[in-house]
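Schema walkthrough. Field components (list of strings):
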Amino acid sequence: MRAEAPDVVPGQPGAGKPDPVLVIDSITRSFGGVRAVDVAHLEFQRGWITGLIGPNGAGKTTLFNLLTGFDRPDTGRWTFDGIPLSRLAPHQVARRGVVRTFQLTKALAKLTVLDNMRLAAPKQTGERFFGALLGTWGRQEQANTRKAMELLARFQLDAKAEDLAGCLSGGQRKLLEMARALMMDPTVVMLDEPMAGVNPALTESLLKHVKSLRDDGMTVVFVEHDMDVIRDISDWVVVMAQGRVIAEGRPEALSSNKTVVDAYLGAHHDQALEFDAEGNPVGQTAVLVAEIESELEAAIERGQDLSA
Amino acid sequence: MIDIPSLLTNGIAALVGPSTIFFALLAIGLNIHFGYTGLLNFGQIGFALVGGYGMGIAVLYFGLPLWSGVLVGMAAGMVLALLLGIPTLRLRADYLAIVTIAAAEILRLITRSTSMTDFSGGTQGLTGYGGGFRQLSPFDNGRFYSFYGVRFLGQDLWSICVGWTVVGLSLILVFLLVRSPWGRVLKAIREDEDAVRALGKNVFVYKMQALVLGGVFGAVGGIIFALTTQSLTPDFYSPPQTFFAYAALIIGGAGRVLGPVVGSMIFWFVLSITDNFLRQATAGSNPLISFIDNQDVGAIRFVLVGVALAALMMFRPQGIFGKRSEVLPDAR
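Field assembly_structure (string):
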């Protein structure tokens, strides 16, 4: 299924890929004085599942928003299959085959599950004002309904087709959003935290579905901040921190990468803790404890709630 | 003491009368805007104004025949929607609300200004543009026609027949549109614009189409009403009229095809009954209700309708026809 084995590509930030589907060059986006995204070069390989990870505030979702037209970059350009995508509106990006989902699911709660699916079908004559009036959209609608039901069956939502999407659980909404994206026959599927807020019992099935997208020949890019989730299913992992790509490589290679671990846990996480015989901290550990305690005292004096 | 049969016959006359037709058409337009697409148009009366005045000015000032005046009125509604929509539809929903209510007031103040007297008739308004409409009437304009005690003057009966035909055609149009995939996109936009964008739909174009369509319904309402009354007076087109249309829409149920029409019928029926009842109850030397002055009835009936509306919102927020699950914050 894979175009190339992941290990032919060197694991440096901005590494070239044998057959990139998305190529990003010098994209930046600032909010106030903060550089939320500052990526010099990044390629996404066709037919792979690429995980985009990083701690909170690393700029992953901002990068997603930029790539899909939901936000405008300060500088930079990017191409999809060699076609420039920069400066396109979100619907134009989606029509070209780069389809995204959202971190907070946007299942349309007051439409039925089936209508959510049919809405996504592209090029509907019945969606044009005069096309709707002519009433010649019935056959296309039937075909779209068939396709929608097949996809719903694949995602185990077919029994819910006539229910309002608002009746679905959080995990089912994620599945619906994924199924809905597939109605558009996308080339690249961009999933923003597909596992967030999902019942752990459903995670396994969600991961299986993400893999099945790749097996159908799609390119998957997904954002996640949980490293464990990524390790199982990604062919390639891109690590972001403070808006930059700090590392990329095969998932098993990255967990031992010092830059990545530092970005996640802070630079001093590997410092050994020292205690004397009575259990009191000594040396560097004592300094650390004193710092933490004075912070807590300051917080209590400011009237903050420590239980949060 | 209270003449119940006359209460009912007046009520039924109001149920199908010109006001019901006018507000039904305004509310059909608002139903497209607010009920299906989630656009807050607070200046629907401005669309009625450009419809009515567009026709009147085309006939009187430019000497066009009445039928082309009707087309000019509808085109004016379309142009107003485009002018208001282009700057505001890319912004959040509340911007459209502010711009539309302001635009409707600007239009009213311009049409009533003395500097426009030659053009729009100023505060005097316009008359004498719609003679051709009455000539088409198959009824005897000066004669009273009686239906089980409900009496209509021939000229009004003709307006009512034409008006309800237009309402019926509008409802068929709305029905065809909202059951189509086009209507599905509108309902999706009402819920979450970004989700619809992510699915490859040009949200701006759909919102603009909805604004134009609903605006043309408002303009048609203005045209029908101007043909019924045979006169255009600028101060009739004041902001509260938009909110009466919203009241009608919400009573009937927003986002339902028949909602605006049934809501408008109930609104004017109840208003007529309370008005007649209060007038009878406060009239004479020994009135049934002594603490309300006969002069205050016109204001108090609206207070009562307001109270009834508040009660409706508490017990049936979806209106007569609405689906409860569609107005609650979460469908669960």
